[in-house]
Amino acid sequence: MGENIGRHLRKLLLMMVLFILLIPSNRTIATSQWADQSGSLYSVLATLQQNQERSLPGTSFSVRAILPQNQEREESTFFDLRMEPGQEQIVNIEVINHTKETIEIEVAVFTATTNKNGFAEYQLSPEVPDDTLPYLMEDVITTTSYVEVPPEGAKWVPFHIKMPEEAYDGVLAGGLEMRRVVSEEQSTTRGLRNVYSFLTVILLHQGEAVSPQIISRGTEVEFSGTEGLFSTNFQNTEAAFASALEIQTIVTNRETKEVIFESKTEGLQMVPHSDFWYQFQLSEDELSEGIYIINYILKSGDLSWEIKEYIRITGESPLEGYVMSRGEVLFLRWRRWLGAFLGLALLMITVIMGLDCIQRIR
Q: Whole-structure pTM over 0.70, yes or no?
């Protein structure tokens, strides 16, 4: 009988420990409402397109997008296409040579990303694509690598779009770059070269419009000298732009409730299915041993998200700091009770096993 009681108690103890360890560590609390942000987005993209296509004094060539009929918005000055699953289409960009010699143009396709400063990047594909990105523009759009344009002439460069068979809702974004190939003989003094390039933005719309959704993928802290660099990875998981993005940051000491840092950054933009590291610095004098709450409030139009990160600074110096998830902090709150419970449970098991041994001896 004593053996059966001991076995049941051990099973009960194991189940309770597993239950406590499985406390969720969700760090993100977000609220999202649909908002029409197309006005600010298209304004930014139109300005970018006009700046890229303007023929500046001394430039050797310019470009012009030949816009098709299936534009999402007629006023767009870039490729803003409404597409269907499996649809194939060829769009063209005209390259105009302003010199009296034949020039060679390098052509490239890029998937839009959000750069480290929190701005849209259309001329640099990600080294590691975002894990929510369904398709790379380089796989959807194909073109020639190089094209020659005759002296004071023009040439159309075709881009073949083959949409994936699987449907999606929202928009995918990318850039089409034209860059003049400059030979070593054309280099200026001291090895410097003037390289001219033009960019045309391309958006591929499909299905229904969706709202952006921003989450946090965690915070890292790196100490250097007397400064601590806090980096939080924000990710836009949907096929939508988060335009005119504002990030408000408030850092609070959890024990004293003192706000030790507060800032606001405006005018950022996240492209669909992308992430970037948002950073701020705190001096060593502002930090002491303890747990800190980083409260982020992000706004894009009528959309808003509240994201909390928990940081624990340990040791005699903040230089020994590290990051904790919310689940770890919650676990710390119950550590004393858990320790007492485990101690009591072990004592009970020891007593029961002792009684069992005594009964066996008798």
A: yes
